[in-house]
Amino acid sequence: MRRFLWVSALAAAIGTLAHFGLAHAAGALEGAVDRQALNWAAIIMFFLFVLGTLGITYRAAMQTRSAADFYAAGGGITGFQNGLAIAGDYMSAASFLGISGLVFSSGFDGLIYSIGFLVGWPVILFLIAERLRNLGKFTFADVASFRLEPTSIRILSATGTLVVVAFYLIAQMVGAGKLIQLLFGMEYLYAVVIVGVLMIVYVAFGGMKATTWVQIIKACLLLAGATFMAFMVMQRYGFSPEAMFADAVRIHPRHDAIMAPGALVSDPVSAISLGLALMFGTAGLPHILMRFFTVADARAARKSVFYATGFIAYFYILTFIIGFGAITFLMTDDSFYTAGAGGVINRVGGLIGGTNMAAIHLANAVGGSFFLGFISAVAFATILAVVAGLTLAGASAVSHDLYAEVIARGHSNEQKEVRISKLSAVVIGIVAIVLGYVFENQNVAFMVGLAFAVAASCNFPVLLMSVFWKGTTTRGSLIGGFLGLTSAVAMVILSKAVWVQTLGYSQAIFPYDNPALFSMTIAFVGIWLFSKMDSSVQARAEQAAFDAQYVRSETGIGAATAHTH
Amino acid sequence: MTDEPHLRILRNAQFQDLVRRRSRFAWTLAVLMLVIYFGFIALVAFDKPLLAMKIGAGVTSLGIVLGLAVIIAAFLLTGIYVRRANSEFDALTARLNAELQP
Q: Where is the signal peptide (chain A) (predicted)?
């Protein structure tokens, strides 16, 4: 039965791919000749990636039997592999194309984002990674509910997880559709369907094992491609950054302004708020936190963060070079631009496909059409791998947290739980396809920011307080966590990105771009205050249970085996 | 709940030593990272001209150098932590485990 399902899913995926190949060939008749050639390179390489990863999924499906296999790859991932997979989760198409595009358009400002995304990792390592591994089993809710009342804490954690996954997934799906439309000349809807179907296949059949290996392969391909691009850029300047910067300052329409902070971060409150969301949002992203349960012990968890931080830091330095390379290689070449009114070319916004395509065009400039095909295929693969990770996190929240603990009240069995998880992956995939289609022409840029804000204001405070503060009670976590969640969402809706740019009102009610400074404060103060006010018998029992949790979180004694409540 | 063993560990001198050393080290590094990062963000927010300042005869600004330094510092701090944890803290944990297992 399983084999039959797998084969039919594969046939469906290939059918869709073949269809888009034909549609593309028809479209290419009207297009330029060289465009056809480079698109085929991309399609063939992407096809190879899909075949390879489906092969891995098939093998993983054969080996996936228990819940531990499905959620945590049987705990058999090494620290190095997990480091690559974490880095892969993090190096999304949005951060590759978005940050290099930001550097292309405003130089230094792109660096502010890179740094914010990176600096959360050391803090995760110092304070969270090992404790997470020692206390948890499959999801971060295992940790948050270790000594608190499991039903309500899991409802809270699953809600936080699903909200983060939903916003992140919509942003990725819409981005995927647009990108693939542009790179492969394929219909938006087909692109979204292919991404959705493939991620369902990876997650539902291969579980964490397949999702991890898809991520590792993609991380290697992306790092290799980005390294080549940065190398080609630096080579032009004799490996002198100063020479590259000097050329970029000469060419860029904003000249010397690209070497200093610009308009991106307008006021101090927004700057600090954005910084908090980037730094602590990472520590609350469910698909990232899940990765700490795929390794054997705390020592391997620690090593994975070290490797991940190294890869991510290296990657952001590459995107910085790629952004500057795009300035010097592309801005001097009219063929990368569409002219505006009166034949005037806007050297920033006039880039074909927008500034987010800077890295893609640079691939063509430094490596020709074959390399452009490679980078296009890698960008597609990147989206696939990231959405697969998100889908798995969402499916686990539904099956492991909501179903097993809340609905079945702990009376479920492993087989049933894994079945529910696979079913959830299918449902989440279909919902993602539908939402991706519905949101096609909406502004979704704020959604990644919102996902980070919710992760920083709900998941992270609940996790941190339950592990570090003895006084935390269920009631405190519940009220504080939901206050953080709702205030983050409300403030984003009332901010400029949604209230003005999406809903069309003239004046934003919440004046800052990012809510984290306020919503995180609300969450932490809420957890503290309502725990303090909680004098129930249950609260005293929960506080008394802290010592046992503390010993296990610090030593790992009792970890690895399933804990019972 | 029959959680007697954890009380024994909690009173264990080796456990207390391990936890004290490790948390002091981890929190020091975490605070250091926060200071470095929010120091950088504070400069972006409050002193843009300083970041725009040139560091030599060329165009490279202080902001670019500091930004890259923050990236490298983040990686170095994780390296420093992992190095000490892999040797000292893991050895202490292993000794503690050996002592607790009769």
A: 1-25
Q: Which of B11, B15, B61, B76 is best to mutate for the A interface (most A CBs within 10 A)?
A: B61
CA distance B84 to chain A (A): 11
For chain B, the structural domain boundaries read 4-100
Q: Which residues contact A502 (CB under 8 A, 6 or more apart)?
A: A442, A443, A446
Is residue A443 predicted with pLDDT exceeding 80? no
What's the rounded mean pLDDT across residues A295-316?
95
Nearest alpha-carbon partner for A366 in A171, A204, A513, A229:
A229
| Pairwise CA distance, residues A204 & A426, whole Å | 7
Cβ A172 vs Cβ A94: under 8 Å: yes
CATH of domain A2-60+79-445: 1.20.1730.10
B37 touches chain A (CB under 8 A): yes
Q: Which residue in A241, A271, A320 is closest to B60 by CB distance?
A: A241
pLDDT category, A355, cuts 50, 70, 90? Answer: confident
Residue B79 at interface with chain A, using a CB cutoff of 8 Å = yes
A172-216: pLDDT as tens digits? 898 888 888 777 777 889 889 999 999 999 999 999 999 999 999
- The two three-digit tokens of residue A383, written as one number: 């989206």
Q: Please give the pLDDT value at position B9.
A: 86
The rounded distance, in Å, linking the Cα atoms of A147 and A113 is 36
Asked if this assembly's ipTM is beyond 0.90, the reply is yes
